[in-house]
Design a protein that fits this description.
Layout lengths: L2 E5 L4 E7 L4 E7 L4 H15 L9 E5 L5 H17 L3 E5 L1 H9 L7 E8 L2 E7 L10 E3 L5 H4 L5 E4 L3 H6 L4 H4 L2 E3 L8 H15 L15 H13 L2
């Protein structure tokens, strides 16, 4: 089975290709342009594995939350590959995959976080086995106290973990957190594990299923405001 997984939720690209005889993953950190470079990275992985797009059996993408543009590019790219062949497409919540990538590495819960801009973050808390302890939040970090009150220490993971902690005004609250020493961490293998589990339990995504945005984009907010003003 040939499996391609990728995460385009932020400007960091996690991508991996697994075949019956090989496995390769790449992490590209540094303002990666998904719209300009993603297909090139996919084709490079396939070329080294001596495969073509039509040889792919399963496609797995992080579905968000995260960058509106990045998520659209990633999922649309895999939908295009699916349309050209017989591959099955599955999407997995980004924060869940981030938490899964750290599970088992410590006895503490894991907080996965992504900068949502405007002094807010997307985040969710998972236990040491990867099970969710909270829903996905879109919030000011200083609202996290109730979610973590019962835990002595918490691992925080994700490219934006240091930024998240810098926004906490309560020093004692900051002391609860231990930054994942490998962040940003490549979550492509976790996407594979979770995606294959989802495929086995509930099948591939519906053709109309799209990214998990949590909030409206700035463009949608502007349009909504304009419509409200027009309608009085």
């Amino acid at each position: 089975m040939n499996i391609l997984s990728l995460d385009t939720s932020t400007d960091v690209l996690s991508i991996a290709l697994k075949t019956d005889t090989s496995y390769e993953e790449r992490l590209i950190n540094g303002n990666f342009s998904h719209s300009e470079c993603l297909l090139t990275e996919i084709m490079s992985l396939l070329e080294r594995a001596h495969l073509s797009l039509k040889d792919l059996d399963v496609l797995i993408a992080a579905k968000g939350p995260g960058s509106f543009t990045g998520l659209r590019v990633g999922i649309a790219s895999l939908k295009g590959i699916r349309a050209a062949g017989d591959a099955k497409l599955v999407t997995v919540p980004t924060l869940e995959a981030m938490g899964h990538a750290v599970k088992g590495l410590s006895p503490y819960p894991v907080l996965s976080c992504i900068d949502a801009k405007k002094n807010r973050f997307y985040y969710a808390l998972y236990d040491e086995s990867g099970n969710p302890l909270t829903e996905i939040r879109d919030s000011d970090p200083n609202n996290i106290a109730d979610d973590v009150s019962g835990y002595e220490k918490i691992i925080i993971t994700g490219k934006d973990a240091p930024l998240f902690l810098s926004k906490l005004s309560d020093e004692k609250l900051r002391e609860k957190f231990i930054i994942d020493s490998s962040c940003p961490r490549n979550i492509a293998s976790s996407l594979m594990a979770l995606g294959l589990r989802k495929l086995s339990s509930s099948g591939e995504d519906d053709i109309g299923e799209g990214p998990l945005y949590v909030r409206r984009s700035d463009a949608e907010e502007a349009l909504l405001k304009k419509m409200e003003e027009k309608n009085g």
